[in-house]
């Protein structure tokens, strides 16, 4: 009778429990992501925040799931501080999604303000948390978050990540399908650069034992770069990718939690970087308890991919410049 009780107490005491806050938790991404995080054993508290009055209901609903984490709901700006206090990880899918015909940059004005204000609240309430930015346009929202944190003297580049995992999730699936691979694991593909259109650079040449014709490369590259549009069009005005994004965000969040627990994790994200001319760039990283430990070089790439990068970098520079202009104008 004693043993199970003892082992449970023991396992909880050695496993450091984390508080994860989801900002924008009532949204198309926020709700399924919160559901997917509810059963993560290393999360002790899942704090759900949104300006929407739906949050208490969503929190009550999730709180009935028989897993150990506690769910708290925080609705409206007056409750943002409580959602963030002592958070180890903050995931931010707050903002407006695309409608058909819109680019991610069209979202800039609305989402830039939202993200800037949320980052400011993080600077005040959880300055050491790892911030995972989903809100688009990621190419610009990440530098905006960095500037908001700098303004409060708490910026640490190692803990601010633009979540580009969905591009990798899509690339894996599309290659698996197109090349009839035996398993998804064989579709080991990295996607670097940024997170919009031509800034998305899939590195198909780095997949072991798989070769592509020029036609296949053109088709697959376009599909990864504009995969989000397939969903926006299919949803016909009802938003952009939410379920696949929630899956991708869970994958990235779990890896950050593992890194916080002491594991050395390899992941790709859009972060402050010095491996190209772009001061923010998505590439493979090693993440540890303090955040990013190492940014890996792009590695050997094909002439085809070199050309994609030549297009991506000037565009990224423009997106980063827009972010800096926005911040200067807001100060
Ligand atoms: P949604 O409109 O369904 O949900 C957004 C949620 O944010 C809403 O519940 C809304 O009330 C909330 N919100 C708005 N302003 C807020 C504020 N100031 N504080 C807290 N919450 C606030 O949108 P969806 O589909 O969940 O998308 C969210 C964002 O994620 C969009 O910007 C979208 O473009 C982006 N996205 C990013 C992807 C990526 O790969 N990084 C992929 C897909 C979408």
Automatic annotation (TrEMBL):
The keyword NAD applies. The lineage of its organism: Eukaryota, Fungi, Fungi incertae sedis, Cryptomycota, Cryptomycota incertae sedis. It is an enzyme of class 1 (oxidoreductase). Residues 164-326 form the Lactate/malate dehydrogenase C-terminal domain. Transmembrane segments: none annotated. Homodimer. GO terms for molecular function: L-malate dehydrogenase (NAD+) activity. GO terms for cellular component: cytoplasm. This is malate dehydrogenase. Its EC number is 1.1.1.37. GO terms for biological process: malate metabolic process; tricarboxylic acid cycle. Keywords: NAD, Oxidoreductase, Tricarboxylic acid cycle. It catalyses: (S)-malate + NAD(+) = oxaloacetate + NADH + H(+). Residues 19-162 form the Lactate/malate dehydrogenase N-terminal domain. Belongs to the LDH/MDH superfamily. MDH type 1 family. It comes from Rozella allomycis (strain CSF55).
